[in-house]
Design a protein that fits this description.
globular, single chain, 7 helices, Maf protein, 5 strands
């Protein structure tokens, strides 16, 4: 009997971390409810990044869970009034970087999510501060052979909607062009090649950084900061350097999972 009790205690100890409730984070890209009007019919950059962030959360061993964008859109479509409010709140964040706390609180409550991650990504130039879609810029560059550098800027903010509190925010930017500051595509195949580069940039840099920083807010010991030298991007979207951290030795850890280095760029 005593042996059985010991076994049950050990099993409860081993299973309890896995059964611990995860944090639910609602991820809302600024272009979520916008009509897709770009010539290439590609997803907007904020959606690409949001999808990668959601996938990272849902692979975090039960620490953070997120609904997919399809599920989020479907729920908004069932409530036109809430959808309209969400559209206005997302446009406000996208255009003037302003947070409508009350709107996001109502949205979070409707989805039964206390935490909301809002993110946006747009392109501008030094000559024109107007924010544009990355695909609009690609089309313009291709049509008019524009060669001056464009800057792809991404920003994200994690909200605790119950307290109208910003838990974390960050931003980063890159030049999506090549070494000649050219960002264009003269046909669909070349445009699709640019899409693949931006997808890789999202997966390995921006979305990875956002995901790690959000996880860090909920689990401060889940990520081990590593000091490293950050080199400037020399032009191409894929020209970035990163040092891969070594996994901590077991004797220096308390059996905690390791998520890699914390990226300080965002």
């Amino acid at each position: 009997m005593k042996a059985l009790v010991k076994i049950l205690v050990i099993l409860a100890f081993l299973i309890s971390p896995a059964c611990a409730s995860a944090f639910d984070v609602l991820v809302l890209p600024a272009d979520l409810l916008s009509t897709k009007e770009n010539y290439y019919n590609f997803d907007e950059m904020s959606e690409i990044i949001a999808n990668d962030v959601i996938n990272n959360f849902n692979r975090s061993n039960g620490k953070i869970k997120s609904l997919g964008l399809y599920e989020i859109r479907a729920k908004f479509n069932q409530n036109p009034e809430l959808k309209n409010e969400a559209q206005k709140a997302l446009d406000k964040y996208k255009n003037i970087n302003s947070i409508d706390y009350e709107a996001f609180k109502r949205i979070g409550k409707d989805f039964s999510h206390k935490y909301v991650l809002v993110l946006t990504s747009s392109v501008s130039t030094e000559k024109n501060s107007l924010k544009r879609s990355v695909w609009e810029v690609l089309e313009v560059s291709s049509d008019f052979n524009v060669t001056y550098p464009f800057k792809l800027e991404t920003s994200a903010v994690l909200l605790d909607t119950s307290a109208n509190l910003v838990m974390w925010s960050g931003s980063c930017s890159i030049n999506p062009g090549d070494n000649n500051n050219s960002f264009k595509a003269e046909n669909y195949a070349q445009a699709n090649g640019q899409l693949e580069k931006l997808k890789l940039y999202s997966k390995t840099a921006v979305a990875a950084s956002i995901s790690q920083n959000v996880i860090l807010r909920f689990y401060p010991k889940a990520i081990r900061p590593v000091e490293r030298e950050i080199k400037e991007n020399s032009g191409g979207a894929l020209k970035f350097d990163r040092n891969i951290p070594e996994k901590p030795k077991k004797e220096n850890q308390n059996n905690e999972e390791f998520y890699g280095e914390m990226i300080y760029g965002i």
